[in-house]
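Hi, can you check this record?
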Amino acid sequence: MPAKDDPVVIKKYANRRLYNTGTSTYVTLEDLAEMVKKGEEFSVQDAKTGEDITHSVLTQIIFELENKDGQNMLPIPFLRQLIAFYGDQMQMIVPSFLEQSMASFAKEQERFREQMKVAFGKTPMDMMKLNPMQALEEQTRRNMEMFQNAMRMFTAFPQGAQPESEKKPEKSDDLQELKEQIAAMQRKIDSMG
C-alpha cells in the first residue's frame, strides 16, 4: 500500500483495462478524470513493462473530453499553435510556460470563486444556473442587504436611545420619510423572496 502522499499506481493491462492498486478496483478514463478534478495524484504504469505511461493516458483523457459534445476547451488556433511548436526551438520552453500559465490561471480562478462567494454567497456556477431574473433579484437583494448594514452603522443608537446631548427638540420629517421608504423597500424585497 502506498504512503499517504505517494501517488496511487494505476496499472494498464494489454486489454486496455485500468486497475487502481489503491482501491483494488478496475477504473475507467472517466474515473481517472474525476480523480484529477479532486486533486488525487496517480501515475499510470504499463502492467507488463512497468513503463510510466501517465502522459499518454492523461492525453487520452483530454482527447476523450474534447470529443464530448459541448466540452471543447482547446480552440483550433491554440491547437494549431501547439502543433507548430513540435520540433521547433521553442518546444523546450512551451511545457514550462503552459504549466506556469495554468497554475496562475487556477490561482486566479480560485480567487474569483472566493470573491463571488463573499459578494453573493454563491459560486460562479451557481450564479449561471439562475435565470437572468433570479440573478438580478439575487443581486438586488444582496445590494439592499449591504445598504441596510451600512445604514445600521450610521444609526448606532436605536430610536429614543440617543444621548441627551444629541436629541433634537422635534423629529425631522425628512428622516421619518427616509425610514418609511427603507421600510417599503424592505417589504418589497421580502415579498420577492
